[in-house]
Amino acid sequence: MLVEEAKGKQADGSNTPHYDLRQIDCDPNFWYPVAWSHKVRPGKTFAARYAGHPIALIRPEYGSVYALEDRCAHRQVPLSKGVVDDKGCVKCCYHGWAFDRAGKCVTVPYLNKEGVGRPVKSYPCREKSGLIFIFPGDPALADKVPVPDVAQVGNPEYKTRMFSPRLKCHYTFMHENLMDMNHQFLHRRQMGSITARFLGQDKGDDFLEARYSFARKGGNQPLAEALIFGKHHDYEDREQPVEEVVSIRTTYPYQTLQIHDKDGDLIMDLWTSYVPLGETQQVTQAFGLLSVKKPKWNFLLNLAWPALGIFTHRIFEEDREIVEMEQNAWRELGGDHNVEVFPVVKSLRALLARSGVPNKYAHPVETASKSEDAA
């Protein structure tokens, strides 16, 4: 009830309460990835989670994958420990109760009559771009909400890599980290001395986009960066011109980063979704796909691919350490003490606050700045 009332108050724009952003849950009425397609093999089950809810993914030998609550209705043991029969149903490993894709119990083998076993919850489930998505919210809304387009998966002009790190932090820290390109000092050991230059922003009810270019102030350009974006020269007597535009966009609840060259061509496309695992949503599973435009000589990108993987991994590990430090500070201080000064991040925090749902531990706070809503 608290969740529904709080969501309503935030939506109508009057007497809007402010909540600690780290107690704002993801809105469940969107499609969230919970597994890579290749992890769920034909005739097998797979255990996943969303916000404290155990999910069993089942792929029959023939037919599409489906998702059920990962608890047998009988003794609540995981259905993901069961087996898939030749009809595509999942049979509990304990007593062999069988459930179909709608969650209906179709067999209690030792009673041999219908209507005995209780059903389990089913989730709308879709497969796209190498990911398995579920719709954890109101099932009646699932067909009205589009499954997101993911980077350049399937586009032969791009080479794509996947990544799925787990982070010990609230999903909102990840949105803030990527949106705020002013933290390049953190990555000085990987990227040398570069400065982000803010070029502008666009925003709406459900999105925020910020654009940047970068100027190198010193240090050598990393090989992987040079092979993808071209050589950046040092201009001792003048500022480096805009050679690429980096656009970071949160279209709730997803986030993208695109890089266009000086001719406007898309040369890199990153898509990511931050999926909460636990009930308090302070542990996050990221699912991301990074697409890079193939150069005229494709073998150059293939040669650079391992170096690109190492480079992006090192950058991410620095970001991981920082956001987990932020989460630890939140716990130790008993709440969100961030003093934000960058207007873009203020706008992002307002977007995440009004789009998400205050959880059962949330209570209105007086410290939130109303300027974040107006930024």
From TrEMBL:
Keywords: 2Fe-2S, Iron, Iron-sulfur, Metal-binding, Oxidoreductase. Coiled coil: none annotated. The keyword Chaperone does not apply. One of its GO terms (molecular function) is oxidoreductase activity. Residues 31-134 form the Rieske domain. InterPro entries: Cholesterol_7-desaturase (IPR050584), Rieske_2Fe-2S (IPR017941), Rieske_2Fe-2S_sf (IPR036922), VanA_C_cat (IPR044043). PROSITE patterns: RIESKE (PS51296). CDD domains: Rieske_RO_Alpha_N. Gene3D superfamilies: Naphthalene 1,2-dioxygenase Alpha Subunit, Chain A, domain 1 (3.90.380.10), Rieske [2Fe-2S] iron-sulphur domain (2.102.10.10). Pfam families: Rieske, VanA_C. The keyword Calcium does not apply. SUPFAM superfamilies: Bet v1-like, ISP domain. This is Rieske (2Fe-2S) protein.
